[in-house]
Amino acid sequence: MIELIQFPWSPFCIVQRRILEFARHPFHIVNIPNADRSMVWRMTRHRYYGVPIIRDGRRVVFETDNDSQVIAKYLDSKFNLGLFPRELDGLQSLVWRAIENEIEDIGFRLNDIYWQEMVPAAEQLPFLRHKERKFGRGSLDQWRRDQKTLLAELTRRLIPYEMMLLAHPFLLEDRPRFVDFDLYGMLANFLYSGHYHLPAAHTRLKKWYRRMEKIKLDSI
Ligand SMILES: N[C@@H](CCC(=O)N[C@@H](CS)C(=O)NCC(=O)O)C(=O)O
After folding, report:
1. What does the alpha-carbon distance between residue 33 and residue 6 come to, in Å, rounded to a whole number?
2. Strands (DSSP E) found in the chain
3. What is the mean pLDDT of the segment spanning 100-119?
4. 16 lines ligand 1 (CB under 6 A)
5. Is 72 in the pocket of ligand 1 (CB under 6 A)?
6. Is the minimum distance from the CB of 105 to ligand 1 under 6 angstroms?
7. Does the pLDDT value for residue 39 go beyond 90?
8. pLDDT beyond 90 at 128
């Protein structure tokens, strides 16, 4: 059985989890502590420490750079999901860069504000240290103070996606492609704490999100 090695609120893990559910293929989730990547390090033979990774039999699949989408492409070809049609290759790579930079960057900060509610007590010290070493001392407190501005900025950055949904039910076409799962993962991470809703102004995006939460390959 395919194993997804992850932690539950990671935007990039949610993307792959939703793709696996979409494929209706049974899979097993292995949650690791955010601060202990030794399992990933071991499984990738000392080549990677990020999440997600997947194990499929003897094969371990992981990303080769920030924009590689190795895991999604592996699942796409294994289960014939139609997420990466050739004619959309260039367009999708432009869109997923925007999603993973502009949307993820704000969404994860807004969710991280509530880190004490989601990170188990024993992992809080290394979590805080990891964040503060990466983003600066007091960064989580600063994001809390900036919450309103960050929410307004996220609403503004989501306008193009709301506009893409004017003409069809999914971002690019009448059926979901990879970028739909990608945006879904970033937004599910933003919503993970349970303290937020999607911006009320983006009515199409809200309906699209509900569709993306449960869509399955055999129903499109
Ligand atoms: N582009 C990669 C990004 C993965 C990523 O940034 N994962 C984060 C967790 S959300 C991670 O493990 N970063 C390394 C670290 O935290 O040390 C992907 O799509 O998988």
Report:
1. 9
2. 2-6, 27-31, 53-56, 59-61
3. 97
4. no
5. no
6. no
7. yes
8. yes
- For residue 178, the model assigns a pLDDT of 98
- Give the Å distance between the CA of 66 and the centre of ligand 1: 8
Give the distance (Å) from ligand 1 centre to CA of residue 207: 28
Q: Choose among 116, 118, 104, 132: nearest CA to 188.
A: 104
Q: Are domains 2-79 and 86-219 of this chain identical in fold?
A: no
The reply to whether ligand 1 has any atom less than 6 angstroms from the CB of 50 is: yes
Instruction: Give the C-alpha distances (Å, rounded to integers) separating 32 from 4, 106, 120, 135.
Output: 10, 24, 12, 22
Give percent of the chain above pLDDT 70: 100
What are the domain boundaries of the chain? Answer: 2-79, 86-219
Q: What is the pTM of this model?
A: 0.97
- For atom 2 of ligand 1, the residue with the nearest CA is 66
Residue 21: its pLDDT value, please?
98
CB-side neighbour CA atoms (13 Å) of 208:
32
Per-residue pLDDT, averaged over 92-119, amounts to 97
Q: What is the CATH number of domain 2-79?
A: 3.40.30.10
CATH of 86-219, one of 1.20.1530, 1.10.3210, 1.20.1050, 1.10.10: 1.20.1050
Per-chain mean pLDDT for the chain: 97
Atom of ligand 1 nearest to the CA of 67: 1
